[in-house]
Design brief:
alpha+beta, about 45% helix
Length: about 60
């Protein structure tokens, strides 16, 4: 399942995390939020960023077998 989480800290800083996206689709999906929230201080890419849609589909098939 794809989702975008926005975490707001007590000091007002925000963190945008994408879950279930592969490749650069995570950046495309969260871009509107990042622009709305203001200046980006850092960018951290998870393993899902480097995973392709095909490898994720294959992994899901293996888990359901």
């Amino acid at each position: 399942m794809k989702r975008i989480e926005v975490i707001v800290s007590p000091d007002g800083s925000t963190k945008v995390e994408t879950k279930g996206f592969t490749g650069s689709t995570c950046q495309q999906a969260s871009e509107f939020l990042e622009r709305s929230l203001g200046q980006k201080r850092s960018d951290h890419r998870t393993a899902d960023f480097y995973r392709t849609e095909a490898s994720q589909t294959q992994q899901a098939r293996q888990q359901s077998s």
